[in-house]
Amino acid sequence: MSNEPSAPPARPRNRRGEGGRLRDDIVAAAVELLEEAGTETAVTLRSVARRVGIAAPSIYRHFPDQPAVMLAVVQQAFDQLEAALRAALEGAGEDPRRRLFAVCHAYLRFCEDHPQRYRTMFGGVWVPALRDTAVTAQDVEALGHGTLHLLVGLVEACVAAGRSTSTDPFADTVALWLGLHGLAHQKAVTVSFPWPADIADRLITTLARLDAG
Question: Tens digit of pLDDT for each residue in 168-185?
Fold first, then answer.
């Protein structure tokens, strides 16, 4: 008797105009496989098709290859991160310093609450070989632009309000993002370390060149 898992029930055909729903189902299946296995190798066109309940060739109507599916997964993760940051911003009031802190702490919470998703975005889980895929360098470079420009705008607002001494908000924002990323990564991989309770605030204040508040 074969030990191969049985195929899932065939997915009902979409009605006319519902092709976008299949695309969403493909991305959702890829996310599930990635989070379950923790490795991109689990996300193949065949495994995704099996999870959705379709024939593998059906994926080609929406994605030309596996890296294109992974690109959609990562784009979705960045969209979710940006949505979390903007939600934090909405409740942060008008003080630019407080708004920057709210967004930076929301960034760290996202990393902590969604470690596998964050690893997919930044941890080298997905590194496409651009010569062998329809994914372009421009596609990859565009990832995270919304989040970065949100942070740049917040640092610029702190400068305009006299709360930051930055003379190059873009460069200082990149340094701030690297600091947040480094802190998130170290907290994720360190089993035990006596992190100072205010380490995030110290990092944000220093790298964004903020006043003492």
Answer: 999 999 999 999 999 999
Give the closest residue to 144 by CA, choosing from 108, 118, 172.
118
Rg (CA), the chain: 21
Tell me the per-residue pLDDT of 52-76, one tens digit each, with 9 for 90 and over. Answer: 999 999 999 999 999 999 999 999 9
Distances (CA, A) of 72 to 2, 75, 100, 132, 139: 34, 5, 28, 17, 10
